[in-house]
Automatic annotation (TrEMBL):
<dbReference type="Pfam" id="PF05199">
    <property type="entry name" value="GMC_oxred_C"/>
</dbReference>
<feature type="domain" description="Glucose-methanol-choline oxidoreductase C-terminal">
    <location>
        <begin position="431"/>
        <end position="489"/>
    </location>
</feature>
<dbReference type="InterPro" id="IPR036188">
    <property type="entry name" value="FAD/NAD-bd_sf"/>
</dbReference>
<keyword id="KW-0560">Oxidoreductase</keyword>
<keyword id="KW-0285">Flavoprotein</keyword>
<keyword id="KW-0274">FAD</keyword>
<dbReference type="GO" id="GO:0016614">
    <property type="term" value="F:oxidoreductase activity, acting on CH-OH group of donors"/>
</dbReference>
<dbReference type="GO" id="GO:0050660">
    <property type="term" value="F:flavin adenine dinucleotide binding"/>
</dbReference>
<dbReference type="Pfam" id="PF13450">
    <property type="entry name" value="NAD_binding_8"/>
</dbReference>
<feature type="domain" description="Glucose-methanol-choline oxidoreductase N-terminal">
    <location>
        <begin position="65"/>
        <end position="297"/>
    </location>
</feature>
<dbReference type="InterPro" id="IPR007867">
    <property type="entry name" value="GMC_OxRtase_C"/>
</dbReference>
<dbReference type="Pfam" id="PF00732">
    <property type="entry name" value="GMC_oxred_N"/>
</dbReference>
<comment type="similarity">
    <text>Belongs to the GMC oxidoreductase family.</text>
</comment>
<dbReference type="InterPro" id="IPR000172">
    <property type="entry name" value="GMC_OxRdtase_N"/>
</dbReference>
<protein>
    <submittedName>
        <fullName>GMC family oxidoreductase</fullName>
    </submittedName>
</protein>
<dbReference type="InterPro" id="IPR051473">
    <property type="entry name" value="P2Ox-like"/>
</dbReference>
Amino acid sequence: MDADVLIVGSGAGGGTLARALADSGLRILILERGDYLPREWGNWDPQTVFASYRYHTEETWGDGNGQPFHPVTGYHVGGNTKFYGAAILRRRPTDFQERRHVDGVTPAWPIRYEDLAPHYDTAEHWYFAHGAAGSDPTEGPRGPYPFPPMPHEEDVALVDTALRAQGYHPFPLPLALHRLEDDPAQSPCVRCPACDGFPCLVHAKGDAELCGVRPALQHANVTLLRNERVRRILLAEDGRRVSGVETDQHRYHARLVVLAAGAVNSAALLLASRSETFPNGIANRSDQVGRNYMCHLNSACMAIKITRENRSIFQKTLALNDFYEDSGDPDYPYPLGHIQGLGKVTPALLHAQRPRWPIPMTAWAASHSVDWWLTTEDLPSPENRVTLDERGGIQLHWQPKNRESHRRLCAKWQDILQKIGFSLVFFQSMDISATAHQVGTCRFGDDPQTSVLDRNCKAHDLDNLYVVDASFMPSISAVNPSLTIMANAIRVASVLRERLRSS
Ligand SMILES: Cc1cc2nc3c(=O)[nH]c(=O)nc-3n(C[C@H](O)[C@H](O)[C@H](O)COP(=O)(O)OP(=O)(O)OC[C@H]3O[C@@H](n4cnc5c(N)ncnc54)[C@H](O)[C@@H]3O)c2cc1C
Ligand code: SF4
């Protein structure tokens, strides 16, 4: 045995799980496909991050119709939290229940908000969560945040005031940053404009490397092996357990194996691990592995007030859930989604993404815009799925649901912004390559016919295989997924501790 618990992947799920198990004395082995993300000036350079995509994978996935694309994903210690915008929201209590949408119904989860709440508390402490309890009208019962909310800069505060004057309920966006607002001279986070989508040059973002893997590695019983890409999961002779995994270089054996390679890659690994016992891929007797892939319907929005420059540096501090539960329109009784600030679109960033636009126009637009990120919930569908082509390459089939709700969310936001003085409002919607918020593919549930994992995230078909990344989610909600992945990993850690202690 190389480990008691072998974890594949070191992102939001795997990195957090490692920290949650670290003080147990169990031998923990993390196998990570990538390396530490290099610390260099390019971390904060829009050209490096958004034009040459230095930190994204170069691999291509297929869209199921023969079209290759580069997914917005990277392989590093800390996983995609290295790039995340650090918006860490809890799911609403209603997100755990069935909910009717224009294109269908989201399924209820086998656990409730109350089951996850204590683990949300822990995750928020580990990840330096800033926020204001009670400010979001849709949130569940909770105690105070570990850190006060990140204050709005002047131009965002003006939007906040204007929205309140219109009768809306904006609130401070919960954020995972190691920021000491009352002692800026000592603060690791310097409130820079290159946070959302960028790695943090000064290691102050609450990502899974800083808040999961590094604290775990303080314990002698935890080992991280980098540049170890897992290719296959090994089935034990009895066909009811897994014995370990195979990478390009080695085989590793463990009492328990936990997948945390991300929703697409964990499904691909299971599908690639075929055997006589599991001809369709390991843990896939139900034929559910890879199905029910979901990704948020997202649009970025630039709202321009012609008469005023936006001098904000760290702009991503405001959010709005007024259309989260329903649209507010009697003829359309469905949820529309969530709105949050986007990292400031600077002239350099806009130029990196739109190199053909005339530079004076780019500079003017970016210096006058306040920028937003709009999210609508996708729905699970068995046809939206991960498959492998004949060479083992990833094929991602995705037709998002609830497009009409997303269209209405954008239209409503445009209307509101225009009423408060932003006469020019532009939207850019995301396509299949924007896999940042990938979830589903191995959903948990009580019925082995319709789910891959049980409520403890153990594969129904196997006695010692678990999955703790974004795959487990049966519905995506309209809030960002990371905090829920982290809290769930902490929940599963307590199950694993109990199990290994008693055996
Ligand atoms: C630009 C961007 C912005 C985002 N902003 C936010 C935000 O503000 N808030 C939020 O909540 N979420 C955000 N997200 C999403 C968030 O990063 C993900 O939801 C989260 O990281 C998913 O966690 P995970 O554990 O499922 O996978 P990941 O964090 O992606 O971790 C998977 C890990 O597995 C490794 N791996 C993959 N395959 C293998 C293999 N075969 N063998 C070994 N290792 C493997 C990967 O290298 C990676 O380290 C953002 C993502 C991006 C890209
Ligand atoms: S310094 Fe702060 S704002 Fe800038 S990238 Fe790091 S965590 Fe984000």
